[in-house]
Amino acid sequence: MIIKKGIGVSPGVAIAPAVVLDTEEFDVPRREVPADLGQVELARFQKAVATSKREIIDLRDRTADRIGKEIASIFDFHVGLLEDKEFLAKCTEAISEGHVTAEYAVATVLRAYAKDFQSMPAYFADRVKDVYDIEKRLLRNLVGERRQSLRHLKKHVNVLAHDLTPSQTASMDRAHVRGVAIDAGGQTSHTAIVARALGMPAVVGLNDVTAEATGGDMVVIDGNRGVVIVDPDERTLAEARRSAEQQDVFIHELDGLRDLPAVTKDGHEIALLGNIEFPPEAETVLNKGGQGIGLYRTEYLYLGSDDEPTEADQYASYRQVIEICDGRPLVIRTLDLGADKYTQARARVPERNPFLGCRSIRFCLQNLPMFRTQLRAILRASVGSQVSLLFPLITNMLELRQAKSLVRDVMEDLEEENIEHRTDMPIGMMVETPSAALQCEQFAREVDFFSIGTNDLIQYTLAVDRGNERVAPLFSAAHPSVLRLIKGVIRAGKRYDVPVSLCGEMAGDPKFTLLLLGLGLRIFSCAPPAIPEIKQVIRSVTLQQAIKVARRVMGFDSDRETLNYLRAETQSILPESFAE
Amino acid sequence: MQFVEIANQYGCKIEVSNGALAVDAKSIMSVMRLAATKGTVLRIVADGEDAEQAVEALAKLVEDGFGEE
């Protein structure tokens, strides 16, 4: 039994056999495969060989056209190896008799060849490069194939991986993936966000859980405590099962709150909305008792494929959400991509510091055709609806004015083209940088609403990378500086009659609800699974209590002090929500 | 490579040796282990229906200098 501690980013307990996704690094750990799965592993190997062969033959044919037959004949060696009887026999033996993964078989057999060749005369030593090349290709096809297989699973599993891309998490077979445990990542990585939205227990920042588990091992993922247990003993397994059952009961109880209003004990109405990434999630928000969508993250429209989504594609997605919302508020945020594959791939030179680079609104303002397409789709889809437009990462006044002016431009175009579109769209901005928060009084005069994005606000204010597991503990919504900024924005909103919502993960964390209410926040937008619990807290307190808590907290000088206090206060109101 | 290709054209069993090691002539990875460079003396032994043709073809290839190696 191995117990690993990480960061719990999505609550719940998941108990299932593991599927381990290896990294694409050169180090292939020895993983055993249960004897009855040997056939499956063999099939994977054969498929990877076939795919690799096809790739090489294709490459060879193309190279022959361009460079010449002689050079292309290098690939003949590669094909020759992949067809080689001895090579295939050795791998097959390792898999069926050694009971190891296809990856391990390939790596060991090929490296043995490489070693042999190294001690031989020049011509052969040169072939070592080729052998490594072939190894990489085979491994790539094997790993890629395993990733494909996450889409169609036959039984319940827990997925353990070094990291997951947003599109991988998005395309996982949700019916069968019970939980997720990741080596990399911090509190608000993509994996965390999607796992929370799906109500799937998740633990990140485990560093090396993929090295400690083998495919098929029973794994417990405890998203509440941030603990992953590989191959638990009888007692631990029983405990975990009991925990999981208790969770289910608790969730069912909370579901009863669905149709009740989010009103404090002393009668103050609070707006409780949901954050979504994909249109179908809008249903989930409403099912969980949310009053609308406080944040529709549109990036997933772009991350799903390599091509930019067309205006028609986008229009369809926006319409889908609008129809589900049926007149309820819906805030659509424009493309907030950055520091990831999408923008890096399009950069002429990859940025050295993408987080402080050309991302989000900056990227959009430097790629006007793409940005206009999105704005057109949103304006067209929003006819007769309650949609508001939200700009991310605004850091200076000119940026905001430029974006707003672009919206007017696009509206003019649509006028001229005689295409129906929304003409009175409220426009707001995210407050997620210190510059925006500190200048909020001036910004308040130029927007229709604010949305505080605590995920990024905390990162930029505390100078901490949320995805870096080495400093992730420094990331805290309870930091006094962060709280001061939040307080300032809420106050500015009040002064200039600009509604302020908070849509970061902080909004979905029940221990911050009292504090935020006390600071004057009246609009919360969080991940759907969190909605019932936040409503529960709201309904169990008076504004008086909340204000007292906030006053106390603003006098603390460290996030730890604040967290301890908030935990204690919230626990006394809602003991069941704290399993710790 | 050509050596192995030609060897694979015949149905019989073919073994090639460099004096110290004898391997299956139809497996490129095995043949490479012979580390046969210019000057190495190869012994080709075939057993089966088309054994004679196989040995002849392979011997000719070696004598002609392989073409590639």
Summarize the structure.
The complex is a heterodimer of chains A (580) and B (69). Chain A has 580 residues and is α/β, with parallel strands linked by helices.
Detailed description of the structure:
The complex is a heterodimer of chains A (about 575) and B (about 70). With about 575 residues, chain A is an alpha/beta fold. Chain A folds into 3 domains: about 1-25 and about 155-245, Phosphohistidine domain (Glucose Oxidase, domain 1); about 35-150, Enzyme I, Chain A, domain 2 (Orthogonal Bundle), CATH 1.10.274; about 255-575, Alpha-Beta Barrel (TIM Barrel). In chain A, about 50% of the residues lie in helices and about 15% in strands. In chain A, the strands form 2 sheets. In chain A, strands 1-8-7-3-4-5-6-2 form an 8-stranded mixed beta sheet. Chain A has an 8-stranded parallel β-barrel with strand order 9-10-11-12-13-14-15-16, surrounded by 5 helices. In chain A, helix 1 packs antiparallel against helix 4 (about 85-95) and helix 22 (about 510-520) crosses helix 23. By secondary structure, chain B is of the alpha+beta class. Chain B has a single domain, classed as Histidine-containing Protein, Chain: A. In chain B, strands 2-1-3 form a 3-stranded antiparallel beta sheet, covered by helices on one side. In chain B, strand 1 (about 15) and strand 2 form a beta hairpin. The model of chain B has no long low-confidence stretch (mean pLDDT about 80). At the A-B interface, helix 3, helix 4, helix 5 and helix 6 of A face helix 2 of B.
